[in-house]
């Protein structure tokens, strides 16, 4: 492990299940992020969670971790989705999301509209109602077909007492009702979010370590582009899940202590 970590110059962290669980900090998360800032080691916290705005994500992390962060330390599935929609001129969409998520899209010049939207965008909408579900289903059945995008694929989101339905569960509902699947899902494990995150850096992929708690998102994303990964067992994945998984992390840790101990020396 020591030889591998000596090659790393850039760290990518997941949030829920890795650094935080609901609004509770996980072991060594605060100490580790503080140490990275002190040692000026580059890192980005990459989150699939699109229920929070970009600013809310930053404020939430700062509050729970007890550490000031820069916006450059955070990249979310909302940012990846906005970047794609903006680059491809989808400036009018029907957006299924929290008010905070919709606000980020509108700030970026993407109007939330029910009048002839150019695309449907599905996020982690904790304010989801049957009215929104029905409108989304009807838009997805329109002819000609309009594009259908989702911020991320997670079936569930880990919380302190279990898990709650996430975008992946919503996608299954719409597939069952309309036979439509998302044309693009932007968050992890889509390598696009990783490439966008690292695009402005000079770092080589061989110098990056992705750290997360999910085999099917964090670890699969890293594996798809040949980046090293560390699975932490503080979130969704249990050690027995590794037996049936098609992806294998480079490292497996009970929590973030091994990385903290290595960097503290």
Number of domains: 2
Q: Give the strand content.
A: 15-25%
> What are the segments in which pLDDT stays under 50 over at least 5 consecutive residues?
none
Rg from alpha-carbon coordinates: 18 Å
Annotation field: number of helices: 10
Q: Average pLDDT across residues?
A: 94
Structure characterization notes:
It is a single chain. The chain is α/β, with parallel strands linked by helices and 265 residues long. The chain folds into 2 domains: 2-48 and 188-264, Rossmann fold; 78-185, HAD superfamily/HAD-like (Rossmann fold, 3-Layer(aba) Sandwich), CATH 3.40.50.1000. Helices cover 36% and strands 20% of the residues. The protein has 10 helices and 15 strands. The protein has helices at 2-5, 29-38, 54-65, 77-87, 99-107, 130-140, 167-178, 191-198, 215-224, 257-264; strands at residues 10-13, 20-21, 24-25, 42-47, 74-76, 92-96, 111-112, 119-122, 148-150, 156-159, 162-165, 184-185, 208-212, 228-232, 251-253. The strands form 4 sheets. The chain has a 6-stranded parallel sheet. The chain is globular, with a radius of gyration of 18 Å. The model has no long low-confidence stretch (mean pLDDT 94).
């Amino acid at each position: 492990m020591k030889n591998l970590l000596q090659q790393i110059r850039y760290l990518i962290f997941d949030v829920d299940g890795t650094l935080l669980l609901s609004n509770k900090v996980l072991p060594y998360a605060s100490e580790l992020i503080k140490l990275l800032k002190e040692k000026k080691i580059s890192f980005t916290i990459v989150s699939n969670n699109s229920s929070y705005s970009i600013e809310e994500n930053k404020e939430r992390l700062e509050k729970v971790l007890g550490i000031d962060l820069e916006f450059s330390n955070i990249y979310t599935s909302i940012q990846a989705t906005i970047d794609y929609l903006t680059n491809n001129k989808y400036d009018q969409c029907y957006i299924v999301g929290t008010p905070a998520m919709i606000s980020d899209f509108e700030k970026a010049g993407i109007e939330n509209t029910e009048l002839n939207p150019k695309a449907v965008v599905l996020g982690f909408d904790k304010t989801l109602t049957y009215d929104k579900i029905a409108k989304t289903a009807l838009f997805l059945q329109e002819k000609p077909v309009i594009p259908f995008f989702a911020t991320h694929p997670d079936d569930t989101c880990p919380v302190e007492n279990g898990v709650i339905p996430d975008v992946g569960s919503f996608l299954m509902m719409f597939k069952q009702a309309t036979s439509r699947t998302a044309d693009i899902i932007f968050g992890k494990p889509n390598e696009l979010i990783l490439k966008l995150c690292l695009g402005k850096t000079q770092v080589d992929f061989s110098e990056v370590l992705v750290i997360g708690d999910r085999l099917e998102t964090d670890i699969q994303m890293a594996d798809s582009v040949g980046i090293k990964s560390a699975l932490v067992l503080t979130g969704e994945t249990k050690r027995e899940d590794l037996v049936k998984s098609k992806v294998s992390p480079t490292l497996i840790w009970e929590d973030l202590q091994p990385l903290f101990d290595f960097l503290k020396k």
